[in-house]
Amino acid sequence: MTDKTTHLIGLLLGTEDDWPRAFETLVHRLGPVNYGGTEHRLTTERLTIEPFDLRDPVRQDVVIDRLAWWYFHPREWLKKAALVNGTYLLNNPFTFQAMEKHSAYCAMIRLGFDIPDTVLVPYKNPIDHEKWTYTASTYNLPFDLDEVAERVGYPMFMKPFDGGAWRGVSRIDDQAALHSAYDSSGQMLMHLQAAVSPFDVFARSLTIGPETQVMKFRPELPMHHRYEVAHDFLEPEAGQEILTLSRTINAFFRWEFNSCETLVTGTRARPIDYANACPDIAITSLHYYFPWAIQNLLSWSAFCAVTGRRAQIDTATTTWFDVADNPDLSWHDKLARYAQLADAYFQAEEYREFCGTTLAALPELVHDWISGPDFDQLLVETVQTTYPAHEHEQFIAHFRGLMGMWVADQANQNQGNQGQVNQDQVNSKDAAQQVVPAGGTFSDSK
Ligand SMILES: Nc1ncnc2c1ncn2[C@@H]1O[C@H](COP(=O)(O)OP(=O)(O)OP(=O)(O)O)[C@@H](O)[C@H]1O
Ligand SMILES: [Mg+2]
Predict the structure, then answer these.
(1) Least-confidence region, from 97-106, 145-154, 336-345, 367-376
(2) Which of 21, 96, 128, 308 is 20 to 30 A from 446 (CA-CA)?
(3) How do the residues of the chain divide into helix, strand and coil, expressed in percent and rounded to 5?
């Protein structure tokens, strides 16, 4: 008789329903997997928020958390689960609470990455506290905002030190805009950061475990157009640096599901945002890249659950700083060492072996599901709950087109034709409508 082991993956969710349904469906379709001669079964469960005893047992092996960065009761449950029960978490709530965007800049500056000049200025309106009057008169020295801005240089961005979702972000081109933005920053603590302007490419990289997808991003467009389907849009050197950077920051902070933003000019890669506890994974924004994301989220969660990977709450900063501070290493050498450290942290070799054996059936399973009617139903329902009624038809056609393009590209890859995709079609904004006519389905288009 085969030995069976069951692993529960918990989903702690915000308002989203699209990727969780995809995840649950794929886990169910995957069925039992074999690891080390033993049969393992994966199951999922959506978590609810309830009173908990700090000694309560925890049934989940792994929890994918999308809520705790803004809702604190579950965040404290996650910490208890990690500390008392050894539950594996995506992401680490300890370092996400303590290390915001600001700390990520600091760590990367120390590691040698090319962060634009950044200054943190004191609160415009300090927190209301009985001791504030004394602190303000004694320690909060007057400062010359214009002089600080001159040092950073125009144009610049003013943005919260712990930002997210573009809250309080503004581009500053002159003194008037500087003062207006600072006056309205209120109780937000703000960075002034030199603008990278102009730049060639905005690269957004999504990292899950040791795997990274670098995508071309256009923040000025509506969400459904922001991720452009584009291949080979970076110089290899810049692409490699972004890959290493993404994995480095994640391994450094013990983040395992994170998206990062880098502005690239030629081979020069300048990171501007590297701490997103709840990265975008919606079908309606990732579209073509959604299959990659959901497959990797499943693979990494399965790897952590099935192999019993132990969560590391603590960081190992000195190991990284020893590389950063070594005067005998060139930048190229340091990147190579960072890549090795990241691979070691993520057990990249074991993970890829696990994907190639235990999860060998997964890529085809994902492909079949994405090209079939169940995914189409999910797509339609997601569009219906995301957009107003008069836009449903247009967006269903748009996303069907993009997903059809993914299915076609997979077929090309399998035939060894990767790279021969018609670039006009891939890069065209309206490519979606060209690939599949409105109302068509994947199966109709094959
Ligand atoms: N230094 C910079 N140079 C050029 N553009 C910048 C810079 N900093 C921010 N931006 C622009 O402002 C946008 C928002 O900034 P940032 O990503 O730091 O804020 P955020 O609130 O974390 O956004 P999100 O949560 O959407 O990632 C960026 O996507 C980019 O378009
Ligand atoms: Mg950002």
Answers:
(1) 97-106
(2) 21
(3) 45, 15, 35
